[in-house]
Amino acid sequence: MPFSHHSHSGQFCEGHAKNTLEDIIQTAVRQNMRVYAVTEHMPREEQDFYPEEIEANGTESGLIANEAAFFKEAQQLRSKYPSINIPIGFECDWVRPSSLTWIQNSLAKFRWDLFVGSVHHVHSVPIDFDTPFYHKARQISGGTDEQLFADYFDAQFDMFKALKPPVIGHFDLIRLKSDDPERSFKQWPTVWEKILRNLDFVAEYGGILELNSASLRKGMSEPYPKAEICKEFLSRNGRFCLSDDSHGIDQVGLNYHRVLEFVERVGIHTIHYLEHTPSQLPEPFDGRFPNTRVESVTLEDLKKFPFWTQAP
Fold it and tell me: What range(s) does the PHP domain occupy (predicted)?
């Protein structure tokens, strides 16, 4: 809808996205977005670099410098475009338990407004990059999607316990490269139990589950997470926000009309969103982010926003 809590640019996510950060924000402004969070990837260990980073001779120090440059640029753009609220954050990469140190370092360096808690690796192998990597991770898990899914949700639970992310990124990303991305998780009782455990934990500490439209542009019929997961989180009084997970201007707000239809079908009546505030709040929604507040809008009021006449 007119909010997104998860985005990337080619300027600071080179090889993985396109267009400058300002291009992305200008597009969000033209679409009458109300809130557009910018959340580039955090630095990672060199052993976890993606193929394009290796080919570009990337270094850990280069990623650390990139993060600093991103934060500076994002602050300047927030001042330049006051008509849109721009929370500044990052997307964490939980690769293994030692990732916690890297994430804590990022959290300590800058005055962030949020971070998106994501898992892109299982057994230190990326599970959403391409099919060969996915198959490698699956083989390590024991050779089946069911076993890999179980390991994914265990890794996710470890991340939740260590970090309590304010926004949960693409909760069921693991299905992207699987044999059947549309399969019901309920077919695997052990996996389903782990999903419910994770949802219980997120609901208990007040994390917000993003409805991520990226899965739709990748050929799936539902956003991340699937309807069956959303209904369980809804029954726990869980809160939902919206994200386009854009990697370029052509993906800003993409498929949000389909997300709206999904929201109505699932029975979600309230959407939450985070806003950056210029002064410290007496009661911020998360003590780590004193300049961030959580707001909400009913689905009926959301439909009245001018975004819907201009979004792709």
Answer: 5-214
